[in-house]
Amino acid sequence: MSIRRTIAAGTAAIISVGALTACGAYDDAQDGAIDENAPIRIGTTDSQKEAWQVFEDKAKEEGIELDIVDFSDYNTPNDALDQGQLDVNLFQHLKFLAAYNAGSDADLTPVGSTEVIPLALFWKDHDSLDGIEGQSVAIPNDSTNQGRAINVLKQAGLVELKGESLLDPAPSDIDTAASKVSVTPVDAAQSSAVYGEGKPAIINNSFLERAGIDPNSSIYADDPSKPEAEPYINVFVTKAANKDDERIAKLVEIWHSDEVQAANDRDSKGTSVSVDRPADELQEILDRLVEDQKNADNK
C-alpha cells in the first residue's frame, strides 16, 4: 500500500514546507479553482489511521490521486486551506469550523459529513459513575470542547447549570452548590495524563488513542443521535468557490463506502456514529453556529 504523505507540524510549516506550496493544484488555476489534472491536497490530523489508508486506495480506484498532508495540531489545517495550500481538509466538526470562520472572517465551507464521535468521561479502574460524587473532573479547556464536556456532565446528572439548554456553557455557568462534581479545565492533550493519575477526565478520541485508552472503557458518553450533537458532526471542508467540485463530492461518497466505514469502525473500536447529511443542511447548521459565535464574541 503506497501512501503519499506530507508532514506539517506547526504554523511555520504552513509557509515553509515546500511540498505544500510546490503542488500545482492552485499554482496555475484561476480564482483558486482546483486543477483537475493535479492530485487533490487534503489535510488531516489522522492519516495514520486505517480508514485513511483504505480511503486513499478507494479514491485511487476511482481515478482520484490524493496528496495527504498530515498536521500535528488542530489550528493549522484551516489556515492552510484558507491560504490555498490545501484543496480540502477533514479533521474538524462544525463547531470548530464556525469558530474559525467567525474569528478569521473566512468562507470555509462544509461539503459533506462523516461522523459524530461521542465525547466521553473516563475514570481509571472504574466502570460506572458510582463513587464519583465529590470528585473534580478534568475537562478540555479549548473553546470548542469545554462547553460540550460540561453538557456531557449535565446529561450524566453530575452538574447543574444556572441556565437551561446552554449550548456552550462555561465553568462559571455551573451551579456548584447543586452539582455532584466540580470541574478542572486542562489542556486537552493533558486530559489523558490526569486520567492516568486516577482522576476522572473527559478525553477527546484523538488523545485516547495516543494514550492507549480503550474508548469503550468510558463510564459515560453523550448521545450523538440528539439534536444537541449537530455542532459536532465532522465534515469535509473546502473553500466556498470549490464547494461544487465534482472530485470532492466523489471523495465524500467514497468515505461512506462499506470498506472505509468498516475501517473507520475498527479505528474507533465501534464508538463513532456515521452521519450522512446533505451539504445544504450542514451549511445551515454552520451559519447558525457562526452567528452564535459572533454574538458571543460581541458580548
TrEMBL record:
<feature type="compositionally biased region" description="Basic and acidic residues">
    <location>
        <begin position="260"/>
        <end position="269"/>
    </location>
</feature>
<keyword id="KW-0732">Signal</keyword>
<protein>
    <submittedName>
        <fullName>Methionine ABC transporter substrate-binding protein</fullName>
    </submittedName>
</protein>
<comment type="similarity">
    <text>Belongs to the NlpA lipoprotein family.</text>
</comment>
<keyword id="KW-0564">Palmitate</keyword>
<keyword id="KW-0472">Membrane</keyword>
<dbReference type="InterPro" id="IPR004872">
    <property type="entry name" value="Lipoprotein_NlpA"/>
</dbReference>
<feature type="region of interest" description="Disordered">
    <location>
        <begin position="260"/>
        <end position="280"/>
    </location>
</feature>
<dbReference type="Pfam" id="PF03180">
    <property type="entry name" value="Lipoprotein_9"/>
</dbReference>
<dbReference type="GO" id="GO:0016020">
    <property type="term" value="C:membrane"/>
</dbReference>
<keyword id="KW-0449">Lipoprotein</keyword>
